[in-house]
Design goal:
Layout lengths: L1 H7 L3 H18 L1 H4 L30 H37 L1 H16 L2 H12 L3 H28 L2 H8 L4 H37 L11 H7 L12 H26 L4
Helix pairs in contact: 2-4, 2-11, 4-5, 4-7, 4-9, 5-7, 6-7, 7-9, 9-10, 9-11, 10-11
């Protein structure tokens, strides 16, 4: 009930963002039900125009474009969510440890993070993936590792501010252990900025996966993903065919929706009123 009350009180932009996210989630979950074709089935000529059987036309191999978009939502969003969760778990744990323990632990972890952040993210990812390969597990691990450096910086800064509060000092004097302090004192009070950052990090990871797929080092064919679909059909633009604009629009559509929700949550966390 509290959730629905919060939604009713939300601004129009947040409701639009929620609708966009729900549309993408439903499309990903119901992809096998919505479309009569399989992900890799060739159903017509190359770049065929839209018709009753192919509502958005076909791609560079004659596969149904709507089917590829729906399955692409499943692949891209699922990998982005898994990567974001892994990066947050890693970044928050190490960030809280660095802020709570301080001293040489903080110095060592922070310097390692500084070295990793000194490399441009895309170049670093391309270098590592070209060596370890582009399997789904490698893609998730590499992007999560790179993204966790940003989460580490935020979680460390927030935890350091909370760590000097009186209630944390009181818990220390009671003899509470580091893990207890992190779970029961620091984490609950750090949730608003971390949740907002989760949305922003999801957008970054989502766009990063699409960029890697566009460069040929993301999700490998024949699996559908939106970045790879843009790359595969880029040549259609030369002939005035709008096929690559559909996956590009899907990327922008979801990114806008998530950012609308993040903006609303940041406003709630700040206590500002319209």
């Amino acid at each position: 009930m509290a959730f629905f009350k919060l939604i009713r009180q939300s601004p129009l932009s947040a409701r639009i963002g929620l609708i966009i996210i729900l549309i993408n989630i439903l499309a990903a979950i119901l992809a096998p039900v919505i479309t009569p074709y399989s992900e890799t089935e060739i159903v017509a000529d190359v770049w065929a125009p839209n018709s009753i059987d192919n509502l958005l036309g076909t791609d560079n191999l004659g596969r149904d474009l709507l089917t590829r978009l729906l399955y692409g939502a499943r692949n891209t969003i699922a990998i982005a969510i898994a990567t974001t969760i892994l990066s947050f778990l890693t970044g928050i744990i190490f960030g809280f440890f660095a802020a709570t323990l301080g001293g040489w632990v903080d110095q060592v972890l922070s310097r390692i993070i500084d070295i990793m952040m000194a490399f441009p993210t895309l170049i670093f990812a391309l270098m590592v993936l070209s060596v370890v390969g582009t399997s789904i597990s490698a893609l998730i691990a590499v992007i999560a590792l790179l993204d966790s450096t940003r989460v580490y910086r935020l979680s460390r800064a927030v935890a350091m501010d909370i760590g000097v509060m009186e209630f944390v000092e009181a818990a220390r004097l009671r003899g509470e252990k580091i893990w207890w302090l992190m779970r029961h004192e620091i984490l609950p009070n750090a949730m608003p900025p971390l949740v907002a950052e989760f949305g922003l990090r999801f957008c970054f990871v989502f766009l990063f996966i699409a960029a890697l797929s566009f460069l040929g080092l993301g999700i490998k064919p024949p699996a559908a993903d939106w970045g790879g679909m843009v790359r595969e059909n880029a040549g259609a633009i030369t002939f005035g065919i709008t096929t690559p604009l559909w996956p590009a629009g899907a990327i922008a559509f979801l990114t806008v929706g998530v950012n609308l929700i993040v903006d609303w949550f940041l406003r709630l966390a700040s206590g500002l009123k319209d």
